[in-house]
């Protein structure tokens, strides 16, 4: 092959190498269900849309998304939520050596899959949650994060380096930028503790999930506790009232302004 021929082949191949998606990130899962508007890096997501390593997922103010990773791990994303599928390393076709999410805003439900427990990690601006064969609800707000364990165990380590192990169903932990805050296990005390900081719409039933995301053990008493707490503290800084859930669209154009930037 002449030098000219090699240059010609290289010149013809260059546009293909530079084309969008030429080095697309590896697919690590897919969407199971989308309500209203949830977007990834390549646009609006729909049921069966692939999701990829390093992709950012964003839900609109009334959007929810339900996803499944290749190892069977499931993730629900609530309204006005944002997270990055930060790091993943496969240990085989259907298991992870490492799967790390970076949750920056919103509410989430995590259901662990078949990978070993040490593979899973959820990072927030206020600390890191390590999960152990777990179902857990996570909230990330502007000034604090919280997690409620529903099944299994988890450990949350705050920015101060202190860690709290969640071992029993309905254990709750909170953290701000300085580190861990109070930890409560009684539902009524938990509601009083979170006040305006936290809402768990999947746990309280204000956002519905499909059967693979359901867990036993009730709602940790939060629904009843919230109602009672609000009645006693009308106008006094109780837990934020959950937003009214928009009806699911019936094949039309999504009815809001799209995902937040």
Can you describe what's shown?
With 261 residues, the protein is mainly β. It has a single domain (26-232), classed as Jelly Rolls, CATH 2.60.120.1440. The protein has four helices and 15 strands. The chain has helices at residues 3-18, 187-194, 201-204, 222-232; strands at 27-35, 38-40, 43-44, 50-52, 56-59, 64-69, 74-77, 82-92, 95-111, 120-124, 127-140, 145-158, 163-166, 172-176, 179-184. The chain has a 15-stranded mixed sheet that branches. Helix 2 crosses helix 4.
Summarize the structure.
It is built from 4 helices and 15 strands.
Fraction of residues in β-strands? 35-45%
What name does CATH use for the topology?
A: Jelly Rolls
Helix content: 10-25%
Number of domain units: 1
Which keywords apply here?
Jelly Rolls, 4 helices, 15% helix, mainly beta, 15-stranded mixed beta sheet, single chain, 261 residues, globular
Topology:
Elements: H1 3-18, E1 27-35, E2 38-40, E3 43-44, E4 50-52, E5 56-59, E6 64-69, E7 74-77, E8 82-92, E9 95-111, E10 120-124, E11 127-140, E12 145-158, E13 163-166, E14 172-176, E15 179-184, H2 187-194, H3 201-204, H4 222-232
């Amino acid at each position: 092959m002449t030098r000219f021929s090699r240059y010609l082949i290289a010149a013809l191949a260059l546009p293909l190498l530079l084309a969008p998606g030429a080095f697309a990130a590896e697919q690590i899962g897919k969407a199971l269900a989308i309500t209203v508007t949830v977007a990834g890096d390549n646009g609006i997501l729909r049921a069966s849309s692939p999701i990829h390593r390093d992709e950012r997922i964003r839900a609109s103010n009334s959007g929810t998304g339900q996803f499944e990773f290749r190892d069977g791990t499931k993730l629900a994303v609530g309204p006005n939520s944002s997270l990055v599928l930060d790091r993943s390393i496969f240990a085989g076709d259907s298991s992870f050596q490492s799967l790390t999410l970076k949750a920056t805003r919103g509410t989430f439900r995590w259901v662990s899959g078949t990978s070993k427990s040490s593979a899973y990690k959820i990072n927030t601006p206020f600390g890191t949650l390590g999960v152990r064969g777990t179902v857990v609800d996570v909230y990330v707000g502007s000034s604090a994060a919280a997690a409620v364990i529903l099944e299994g165990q988890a450990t949350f380590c705050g920015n101060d380096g202190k860690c709290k192990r969640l071992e029993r169903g309905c254990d709750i932990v909170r953290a701000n930028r300085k580190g861990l805050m109070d930890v409560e296990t009684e539902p009524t005390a938990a509601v009083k503790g979170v006040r305006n900081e936290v809402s768990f719409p999947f746990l309280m039933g204000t956002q519905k999930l499909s059967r693979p995301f359901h867990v036993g053990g009730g709602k940790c008493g939060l629904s009843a506790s919230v109602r009672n707490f609000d009645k006693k503290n009308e106008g006094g800084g109780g837990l934020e009232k959950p937003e009214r859930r928009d009806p699911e669209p019936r094949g039309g154009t999504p009815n809001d302004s799209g995902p937040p930037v």
